[in-house]
Amino acid sequence: MTTYTHGHAEAVLRSHRWRTAANSAGHLLPHLREGQRLLDVGSGTGTITADLTRAVGESGEVVALEVTEEAAALTRAELERQGIGWARAVVGDVHALDLDALGGPFDVVHAHQVLQHVADPVGALREMLRVTRPGGLVAARDSDYGRFAWHPAPAGLDRWLELYTAAARANGGEPDAGRRLLAWAHAAGADDVEAGSSTWCFATPEDRAWWAGLWADRITSTALASQLLAEGRASEAELAEVADAWRAWAADPDGWFSVLHGEILVRA
């Protein structure tokens, strides 16, 4: 496995808990049915997992997979908070899925913002396909940092992207995963692949303040900040300047930010 660039600081969890199936798995939702078995790889804070679990109903089954007990506990806490008792969270490695421990093959395997962080995304997709029933579906969605767009364009945001990309690649990840999903699926042996894209857009004063506040905190007080300082990629003063650039962008009434995601649906 790679080192997880974001870590699990409050600013990161605040971002991840905003995610829902509606805003993060819209490409998959039309294909979900009552009674399906679903594996949610990299379930994290569990908000998407909870929505997917409701979509397959109590006659279905959802297994959430995380790489550490700490992360799996986050999923369990959210499922409990929402009163969802027919899903379970387990610890495992997407590069080597234990089909017996997972309870057998799945109708749907889902991963959101996962393949950009794993050591071998092609191998991970191959494993996801292996545990999917014939005719079942593998769904993945990943950001493409190199195609994020914003206006106005303060130099500090360019520096933010440069620093984040360097840190992610140093950890063994691929921050431009979105554009590579189709190629990775083909390399994993898939031939029935539907590829597309979607965006998040932050342009209202409230959305700008929320998005910029997340990244101002993440660049100064999370695992990302610690890594950048430890590797000598930036000083504390420079990270503070980047955070200020985020806040200045958010305060501009013309501020607009678009986050591009690649998406794939793969028939097993």
From TrEMBL:
Q: Tell me which domain of life the UniProt entry assigns to the organism this sequence originates from.
A: Bacteria
Please state every residue range assigned to the domain named Methyltransferase.
34-144
**InterPro entries linked:** Methyltranfer_dom, SAM-dependent_MTases_sf
Q: Name one GO biological process term.
A: methylation
Q: Which UniProt keywords apply?
A: Methyltransferase, Transferase
Gene3D superfamilies documented for this protein: Vaccinia Virus protein VP39
Tell me one GO molecular function of this protein. methyltransferase activity
Q: Which Pfam families match?
A: Methyltransf_31
What is the name of this protein? Methyltransferase domain-containing protein
Record organism: Nocardioides zeicaulis
